[in-house]
Amino acid sequence: MTLKEIAKLANVSQGTVDRVVHERGRVSPKTREKILKILKEVNYQPNIYARGLVLNKSYTIAALLPEFEEGEYWELPTVGVLKAARELGHFGINLEILAFDQNSVSSFAEQANQVLKMKPDGVIIAPVINFEAIKLATKLKELKIPFNIIDSRLDIEGALSFVGQDAFQSGKLAAKLLSAEIQGSGIISIISIKNNENHNKTLQKRIDGFKSYFYDSELLSNITLKEHDIDERSKDWITTLSNACSRPNTRGIFVPSSKVHYVARVLEEKQMDIKLVGHDLITNNMEYVKKGVIDYIIGQRPEHQGYIALDDFYKSLIGKTQVTGFKYLPLDIVTKENLMYYHSDLLGIKS
Amino acid sequence: MTLKEIAKLANVSQGTVDRVVHERGRVSPKTREKILKILKEVNYQPNIYARGLVLNKSYTIAALLPEFEEGEYWELPTVGVLKAARELGHFGINLEILAFDQNSVSSFAEQANQVLKMKPDGVIIAPVINFEAIKLATKLKELKIPFNIIDSRLDIEGALSFVGQDAFQSGKLAAKLLSAEIQGSGIISIISIKNNENHNKTLQKRIDGFKSYFYDSELLSNITLKEHDIDERSKDWITTLSNACSRPNTRGIFVPSSKVHYVARVLEEKQMDIKLVGHDLITNNMEYVKKGVIDYIIGQRPEHQGYIALDDFYKSLIGKTQVTGFKYLPLDIVTKENLMYYHSDLLGIKS
DNA sequence: TTGTATGCGTTATCAT
DNA sequence: ATGATAACGCATACAA
User: Fold this and answer.
1) Which of B7, B251, B292, B309 is the most exposed place for a label (fewest CB within 10 A)?
2) For the residues of B69-123, what is the DSSP string, one character each?
3) Do A351 and B327 touch (CB under 8 A)?
4) Paired sense of beta strands A59-66 and B326-328, if any
5) How many helices (H) and strands (E) in chain A?
6) A61 CA – D2 C1', rounded, Å
7) What are phi and psi of B85, to 5 degrees?
């Protein structure tokens, strides 16, 4: 049903109906009521094509994402936003990616400044550098530029949406799987591999979740947890890693990040029969899952995160629908037997 | 860049450019080349709003789906197509659901006839009644009405797309999980619960996949597989089921369908410590996963299947993009620790 | 072979 | 307070 038809039904002009639809006043209460009634009766839905045509607005969304090498974790969310950008470009959503160096606070700050300078209609923030992200978000709030947060939470109110993971729960899930694999007893090593000084909240939450699984149960009597922190920047880190893996009686290893493939390589080379659980379905990890060296990978759909982040702006700016705040994506359990379909799913993303 | 602007660049009229864009001929080769060149240079993308407005076409898609009670499996794909219909209605995609009785061949045939009568622009088929589905698909091919297949494969060429699961692989995955849970030894029961005479291909493939996991490995020496077929229509089937569960030394049970909650109830009532793996995240099953009675549910994203099935018609009919043939959705492993996020994911679907 | 004109449904502006 | 009308970009029928 079109405005014109409704106007005829109400014996008024199209303009009047339009004023009622958009609540712009300047309509007598009587006719307003009459039109409102008809609108409800016929369940008027504006034609989005006509609306899109006449408004012909286009919006620029800035995405502040970490730089990455091919095959690294942050490639995945980036692929997701790019895919969304390709689809939504037709609808007037334009994407501008600003990449920063994860290990450089100043790099983030610099790109954040760029963001402010370009006065975008929305901003997607990967809050890898927590404190700086909060500063940016605060400024955006002042400027009334909507923003949303991707990957990990940020302690700030007022974001359009958050799309990410429940890191604590994913650690807990890892613990459950590893514990079943080692049949509930033995030594488990938690190996964190880092290459900078930043405090990584996600990593820590995963470890907390992992431990909590054992503390909450009576399993701990048969399980010993050991923690290893390894710095990729030290020259003999591979040896340190190797030693950590070779600790006697180690039955299982948990790596709270995508760097689990480094551990897998050690296990494979040394042919050690240790159960291994890690995070994120990056290419390197997939290879080791396929071979059975990594027993389980926990995924959090990073491409979908990227996709949804941009799609939320589309929904909010163009669709004018209410976008709901928190979106924790499912924690996918990926193993040799179902890897193939997660792999091909990445290509489709939305679907 | 608009047609008008391009026309100006080429010193021709809008109509001429349009004829080139749509390859409708009646343009001299010379001007054609000139325009083609410009089109490529500026990477002309038609404004979808304007196009949608002027074409103002709407398409009706018929979906032939099984009837269901609340909480049953087929509710989920139905929810998915309905969700898609709500979103795509704005773009001119209308959905007509025709529900048939899964246990009645004539009911399917009758609804299939309805489908043919209404001459839809596309058909979504749930090939639960295999032979009849093939008959329908054949007729649709003759009539050149595009169709796609949802849930399980159909042995016929020419579908727009197939969206479903790899049933064999999902059985295999179930075997891997169950085998880890029972630590590689003991008796495993495979319990099929049916309520009709139809040969259920999906069930059989899952069972085949399940067995293959053991046959392919050396595990079988420590594992004994027992199969139980239970008919829900027999008056004492609950007793039969109960007996099947109570078989001595049973360490694990596999149910190749969504009816795993029946088994869970027995295990809970009798407080039996048997590991349990089944399929499909229907409400009843979720409850038992939460309680830890069902250890793993393997999901196949039925809502997404429904969503994608309709979305494929949108892409093909309106977006005029090529829709790719086979889509096996990921086999999700759902357990107590990650259930919550799969649950909430159902609400979003697309995202 | 080419150009022109009309209309799709909505928004927004300008008269009345 | 209300009505009339132009414009958005495209497809198409018709005129030249």
Assistant:
1) B292
2) -TTSTTHHHHHHHHHHHHHHGGGTEEEEEEEE-TT-HHHHHHHHHHHHHH--SEE
3) yes
4) unpaired
5) 14, 12
6) 40
7) -60, -40
Q: Which helix (H) or strand (E) holds B284?
A: helix B283-291
Residue B344 in domain: no
Q: How far is the CA of B50 from the C1' of D12 (A)?
A: 14
Same domain? For B322 and B238 the reply is: no
**Strands (E) located in chain A:** 59-66, 93-100, 122-125, 147-151, 161-164, 186-194, 223-231, 250-254, 275-279, 296-299, 326-328, 332-334
What are the CA-CA distances from residue B207 to residues B195, B248, B256 (Å)?
A: 17, 22, 6
pLDDT of residue B351: 38
Angle at Cα B137 formed by Cα B136 and Cα B141, nearest 5°? 120
Q: Which residues of A303-334 are buried (b: 16+ CB within 10 A; e: fewer)?
A: bbbbbbbbbbbbbbbbbeeebeeebbbbbbbb
Which CATH number characterizes residue B238's domain?
3.40.50.2300
Q: How confident is the model over B246-304, as pLDDT tens digits?
A: 988 899 999 999 999 999 999 999 999 999 999 999 999 999 999 999 999 999 999 99
Q: Which amino acid is at B321?
A: T
B162-218 residue pLDDT tens:
999 999 999 999 999 999 888 878 899 999 999 887 778 899 999 999 999 998 887
Asked if A322 is an interface residue toward chain B (Cβ–Cβ < 8 A), one would say: no
DSSP secondary structure string, A164-203? Answer: E--HHHHHHHHHHHHHHHTTT-EEEEEEEEESSSS--HHH
What is the DSSP track for B206-239?
HHHHHHHHHHTSGGGGGEEEEEEEEETTSTTHHH
- Structural domain count, chain B: 3
A304 interface with B at CB cutoff 8 Å = yes
A335 and chain B: CB distance < 8 Å anywhere? yes
Residues of A in contact with B180 (CB under 8 A): 180-181
Q: For A218-332, where are the alpha helices, taking DSSP H only?
A: 237-246, 260-269, 283-291, 302-313
pTM: 0.93
Cα–Cα distances in Å, from B50 out to A161, A320, B7, B20, B57? Answer: 31, 20, 17, 18, 13
Q: Which of A61, A12, A13 is nearest to A315 (CA)?
A: A61
Return the CATH number at A21.
Answer: 1.10.260.40
Q: Are A61 and A81 in contact (CB under 8 A)?
A: no
Who among B49, B180, B330 is closest to A338 (CB)?
A: B330
Q: Determine the Cα–Cα distance for residues B144 and B115; give it in Å rounded to an integer.
A: 14
- Domain identity same for B306 and B198: no
Give residues with Cβ within 8 angstroms of A119, minimum separation 6.
A143, A145
Residue B23 sits in which domain range?
3-45
- On whether both B24 and B127 belong to a single domain, the answer is no
Q: In angstroms, rounded to a whole number, what is the distance separating the alpha carbons of residues B69 and A55?
A: 45
β-strand partners of B333: B298
